[in-house]
Amino acid sequence: MGAAVFEARYNRILRSREQGYEELTDHLGRHASLGPLVRLGLLRRREENGEFQRYNGYVPTEAGQEMLLYIPEKELILVRPGMSAVLHKALQADPAPAAPFKETYAEPTATQFAAVKHMRDQAGRDLWRTQRADELRKRLLQGYMDLRAFTTRTGVGEGALLRLEFVQARSEKPHEHALHLEVTKEGAKYLEVCDPWELLLVKPGMELPLYARCEPEKASYWCTLP
To answer: Is the sign of the CA dihedral 94, 27, 42, 32 positive or negative?
Structure first.
């Protein structure tokens, strides 16, 4: 079965090349990191692992689909015809090129989407709570991570962020649904407030860099992987 899958995938790559497509790994280089694509919001971690998945479980976001074609049944990501130069230029805008990134660090995101569904189910007829859940789902599809999910995995919460001055308490909330915290200039490398939904989000691809800043010893295993 496995051999048949890989043969079918390779044949699809060959046909796609004739049509002007380029397989993503061929475009980036065999040992290139997916980090820039993730940090730019062009790839996100998929909900569940697949037996024959490639790219360590990353798939294009809606923004990435402008340049990338994802073929689920072949587990292939192809650069669209005429988009190689555009993608190459886009990668030059990597917001954190020196940030540690390990493809195997990010876990499947199904539990995060399940939490969003629970939020929506619990919202009842509260329109703001319903919209808040919908906004978080949209952000997850863009590659963001809710701080609560980050805390569940790493143990790093608001206290650590306050101690490191990545966030600071607001002396006065500008409106009813404003978050009680605001992100500092230093914290803006890793975090983003989603207003007016009281959401504190970890930026795409910045989970491991944030973990490394907050708990360097615990994060060192992942950061030193080849």
So the answer is: negative
Task: Note the pLDDT tens digit of each residue in 125-144.
Answer: 999 999 999 999 999 999 99
Burial pattern 167-192, b for ≥16 Cβ within 10 A else e, equals: beeeeeeeeeebbebbbbeebebbbb
Amino acid in position 49: N
Residue pair 164/184 in contact (Cβ under 8 Å)? The answer is: no
DSSP at 139: H
> By three-state DSSP, how is residue 71 classified?
strand
> What does 55-75 look like in DSSP terms, one character per residue?
GGGEEE-TTGGGTEEEEGGGT
pLDDT digit string, tens, across residues 55-103: 999 999 999 999 999 999 999 999 999 999 999 999 999 999 999 999 9
Cα radius of gyration (the chain): 19
CA distance 132 to 136: 6
